[in-house]
Amino acid sequence: MTKAAETASAPVLEINGARATVRLNRPRHLNRLQAEDLGELIRLFDRIEADPTIRVLVLTGTGRAFSAGFDLNSMATRATSETVPQSADSAFEAMVDRLEDLGVPTICRLNGGVYGGATDLALACDFRIGVDSAEMVMPAARLGLHYYTSGIKRYVTRLGVDTAKMLFLTARKISAPELLSIGYLTAMVPEALLDEEVDKLATVLAGNAPIAMRGMKRAINEFARGELDEEAVDQRHRDSMRGDEVKEGIKAFAEKRAPRF
Predict the structure, then answer these.
(1) What backbone phi and psi angles, to 5 degrees, belong to 39?
(2) Tell me, what CATH number does 39's domain have?
(3) What distance in Å separates the CA atoms of residue 44 and residue 21, rounded to the nearest whole number?
(4) Which residues are within 8 A (CB) of 53 and not within 5 positions of it... i.e. 6 or more apart?
(5) Residue 6 pLDDT
(6) Are 127 and 107 a contacting pair, CB within 8 Å?
(7) Could you give the count of Cα atoms lying within 13 Å of 90 in the half-sphere of its Cβ?
(8) Are residues 146 and 247 both part of a single domain?
(9) Are residues 195 and 233 in the same domain?
(10) What CA–CA distance (Å, rounded) separates 45 from 52?
(11) Where on the phi/psi map is residue 183: left (φ > 0), alpha (ψ -120 to 50), or beta?
């Protein structure tokens, strides 16, 4: 680990070609999120959304854990940043919802344990690739905390009713193999292969048609939440049939080469 990485800071953004990486960077406290980190994450997500050269986002943590979630001592503090919608139940919920709705595909690189609200932060990503030593705990029931609405909805729509009940109501520690079996992890790998597996998926996503992916991701998320705008989806489908992406895709297929979007 570099000296810079050892120093606690707000989340760090690194851009390498078409790939952006956001790294939670408070390793001494297992990347526990502070109130000031929430608005900063939204600003980073907005910056990524606004950059057309970025095709994929990887979210990860520094050190031995992905994140210990939101600082419990700050739980009652409302963020005052103007970037947080006033209608949101909390700054944390607004930040996680923003990540889920990000247009570019997202990968959570689970470099270690994931706890509390960070379990929902990871779940808001499109894919989760974790090390085989990872573990998760959702301790809401032990803390006397009723979880926020969109987080419960994400657990249910992505993992199913029975799994959501098991994770929320038992508050027990779940190992990486079990996380893989319940669908929380997309893939599980030894630590030595984590970067290779993340790179492989990031390369695939960065090479696919960005407008088509953005539209389909939006439709899938809306459908899962019971909020599908069928007219808008149908319009995006019709637009794609006349768009530059499908022309390049068909041409590349005919020429037996990778498309250049």
Answers:
(1) -65, -35
(2) 3.90.226.10
(3) 10
(4) 17, 18
(5) 59
(6) yes
(7) 17
(8) no
(9) no
(10) 13
(11) left
Nearest-angstrom CA–CA distance, 205 and 212: 12
Q: Which domain holds residue 228?
A: 208-254
Last residue within a domain, chosen from 171, 187, 205: 205
pLDDT digits (tens, 9 = 90+) for 210-252: 999 999 999 999 999 999 999 999 999 999 999 999 999 999 9
Q: What is the pLDDT of residue 90?
A: 86
pLDDT one-digit tens code per residue, 181-206:
999 999 999 999 999 999 999 999 99
Q: pLDDT confidence of 73, banded at 50, 70, 90?
A: confident
**Residue whose pair of structure tokens reads 């006033």 in the numeric block:** 86
Three-class SS state of 80: coil
Phi, psi at 51, each rounded to 5°: -100, 105
Q: 92: closest CA among 113, 62, 68, 120? A: 120
* 114 burial level (CB within 10 Å; 0-12, 13-18, 19+): buried
Give, as one character, the DSSP assignment of residue 147: P
Q: How many helices (H) and strands (E) does the chain have?
A: 12, 10
Quick check: helix, strand or coil at residue 14? strand
- Nearest Cα neighbor of 120 from 104, 99, 101 is 99
Count CB neighbours of 245 within 10 A. Answer: 17
Q: Which amino acid is at 160?
A: G
Give yes or no for a contact between 155 and 123, defined as CB atoms under 8 angstroms apart.
Answer: yes
Is pLDDT at 2 greater than 70 in this prediction? no
Q: Which residues of 93-105 are buried (b: 16+ CB within 10 A; e: fewer)?
A: bbbbbbbbebbbb
Query: Which of residues 189, 205, 221 is at a domain's end?
Result: 205
CA dihedral 201, 205, 208, 212 (to 10 degrees): 140
